[in-house]
Design a protein that fits this description.
Oligomer: single chain
Strand content: 15-25%
Number of strands: 18
Length: about 650
């Protein structure tokens, strides 16, 4: 047993955080700590890592316990470098190596190898080498390189200054240090926040074989499910331990709450029945003894635990009134680029996709590959410099931004909605806010006072009110707690409109989309599957094998196109579009001529009728000619 809590209580500012908590951490445990924001997760981590002392009860730590704690912000030395920080993590190894090097220099200086001093130094060297070998010193740099590569520092020069790194990079570097250290307990507080898919996959595999104990706080349900096998849930002032990974925990928790509810109802019914009997029979002498017996039975009943009060999760629901056409979006030859001063930076070249009504498409990839930029181009928040973007008829989009820039900080929640939807009644808007968790006086809170999760719920309420038949979502689960994430996920699954979303939430990506657009290395691939399938069938395989198979399939299916071919296709499609427009105009002209010919007003004007007839014949000839050209274009496209 590494850490043991016995009837531990802790309060902050007079407010109880935990009460009478008893739990233990054993060697090899992999524990997920979950609970609502502000429930006391960080307090518990600080008690375990001895940064806080409990008010009541006892916390026992095993002797010489080594605990590493990754906070949400990094804790590395700003005057160090990547290499110096990594060597600091393996300081015993490098101290042993320096001792060996010093003793080796002394041995080399001796001329008399039979002297007492030489033999003493030689013995010291042997002990230092044994120490170095026991620490697996010869593989130290290999271990450093492996961890740095896995955490995205493979291309960073080892002399890179920590002070020049971003906050996210510093946190990742701190995680590298902790992974290298020989720890008994590794505590991770939102360790996945700054990691892309490749880093996450590497970290999960590393932690699965990690010899020490892991205690992690995370909102990443996929990460918890892959890494942990014990789930601690903060419930009120108590902590409930489930011997299960996150997915299994959901089932066990549901079963436990149902059991508690049944036991509590059974207890209440028994008490009520006994009390009613006692009340009816206490006054009569013949039955008073029996009534007193019933009251004694109530006192001796085992009190059933009252089920915990469960916070009502938000209810998200997306509907639309107008049904769009089948072809929602057509994109061709679009370069996704951003302006950097006078220069342009190309993120994705020659992007194209066709999205049908009801499809749910996710765009994934590393940070900076152009995912959010693409959404902004599609919604005209950023300029398009080339390519084709065609939205279908009756399409109404609703856009969820990552940031809160479109919200007014000094407005109340209610006023923000009212300004956007002035024809709605106050009752309807308050009901909408109540659905996402803002009830009573909370609707008068100013937006500037909201937390990240509250801002996200407000933006989702705005999206719900837009009646959009196409939802465009940029990281919709960021800042949401787990109940809110699960509620949003269910709403998106039930939504029968079209979804185009960018997300890093692998749990969401495994349940909502049916197509994945994967931005990688300046290009992109499209897969007709969700993330779970993509992870199992593509991402887990060697890149070379996937690339070869993709090229073979593309050639076999006839979809391989050179740049010249793609250019020709674009030209033909533009020509097809112009021909259809010209035909439509001529057909309208023909209808107008037919109406004039059939007009009684001009029935006796033979000259005018003759002119109209000649115009009709010429119009028919032009229409037939354009249809012949259209046939030629369509034949070329088919080929």
């Amino acid at each position: 047993m590494l850490v043991n809590f016995e009837n531990v209580s802790f309060a902050y500012g007079g407010e109880s955080i935990i009460e009478n908590v008893s739990l233990s951490i054993n060697k090899g445990d992999k524990i997920a700590l979950i609970g609502p924001n502000g429930a006391g997760k960080t307090t518990l981590l600080n008690l375990i890592s001895e940064k806080l002392v409990c008010d009541e009860g006892t916390i026992t730590h095993s002797p010489y316990l080594k605990v590493g704690y990754l906070k949400q912000t990094g804790d590395v030395k700003n005057n160090g470098t990547i290499q110096s920080e990594m060597e600091d993590a393996l300081k015993e190894v490098y101290a042993a190596r320096r001792e060996m090097e010093s003793l080796s220099s002394k041995l080399a200086a001796f001329t008399d190898h039979s002297s007492k001093e030489y033999k003493s130094t030689e013995l010291s060297y042997q002990k230092a080498e044994e120490r170095f070998l026991s620490l697996d010193g010869y593989s130290a740099q290999v271990r450093i390189n492996t961890v740095l590569q896995g955490m995205g520092f493979g291309n960073f020069p080892r002399d890179t200054s920590v002070a020049k790194m971003s906050g996210g990079e510093q946190t990742r570097l701190m995680l590298c240090k902790l992974l290298l250290e020989d720890l008994d307990i590794l505590i991770l507080d939102e360790a996945t926040n700054h990691l892309d898919f490749n880093m996450l996959a590497w970290l999960e595999e590393y932690l699965k074989s990690y010899k020490g104990t892991i205690l992690t706080v995370s909102h990443d349900r996929w990460f918890l499910n892959n890494v942990t096998d014990i789930t601690w849930e903060i419930e009120g002032l108590n902590i409930i331990s489930y011997p299960a990974s996150y997915n299994e925990y959901l089932n066990l928790r549901k079963m436990r709450l149902e059991r508690l509810q049944k036991e509590y109802e059974k207890y209440r019914n028994t008490v009520q029945s006994l009390q009613e009997y006692a009340d009816k029979n206490m006054a009569r002498a013949s039955t008073s003894q029996s009534a007193k017996s019933r009251l004694r039975m109530i006192e001796h009943l085992d009190k059933a635990e009252k089920p915990p009060k469960i916070e009502i999760p938000p209810k998200f629901e997306f509907k639309y009134k107008i049904k769009p056409v089948s072809d929602i979006l057509h994109v061709e030859h679009l370069d996704v680029l951003i302006k950097e001063g006078e220069n342009e930076r190309l993120l994705i070249e020659d992007f194209g996709i066709h999205i049908k009504r009801g499809e749910k498409v996710a765009i994934i990839g590393s940070n900076g590959t152009g995912k959010s930029t693409l959404l902004k181009i599609l919604t005209e928040l950023m300029p398009r410099y080339n390519g084709i973007i065609e939205w279908g008829r009756n399409v109404k989009t609703g856009y969820f931004h990552q940031d809160a820039g479109e919200l007014h900080p000094y407005k109340t929640l209610l006023m923000e909605l009212w300004d956007r939807f002035p024809l709605e009644s106050e009752l309807n808007l308050r009901n909408l806010l109540a659905k996402v968790g803002f009830r009573g006086e909370e609707v008068y809170k100013h937006i500037s006072a909201l937390s990240g999760g509250e801002v996200a719920r407000l933006k989702l309420s705005i999206l719900m009110a837009q009646d959009a038949n196409v939802l465009i979502l940029d990281e919709p689960t960021n800042h949401l707690d787990m109940p809110s994430k699960e509620a949003l996920e269910q709403a998106l699954i039930c939504y029968d409109g079209t979804i185009i979303m960018v997300s890093h939430d692998r749990w969401l990506l495994s349940h909502v989309p049916d197509r994945i657009v994967y931005f990688n290395e300046g290009g992109y691939d499209i897969y007709n599957m969700n993330f779970k399938q993509l992870s199992e069938e593509v991402l887990s395989r060697p890149k070379a094998a996937v690339k070869k198979e993709k090229e073979e399939n593309v050639k076999k299916e006839g979809y391989y196109k050179s740049k010249a071919q793609r250019s020709l296709i674009a030209s033909l499609k533009n020509k097809e579009k112009k021909l259809l427009t010209d035909i439509e105009q001529l057909e309208n002209l023909k209808i107008s001529l037919e109406e004039q010919l059939s007009s009684p007003k001009d029935a006796g004007d033979y000259q005018k009728i003759n002119e109209l007839s000649e115009s009709m014949a010429e119009t028919d000839r032009k229409i037939n000619e354009l249809y012949e050209q259209l046939d030629d274009v369509m034949i070329q496209l088919d080929s």
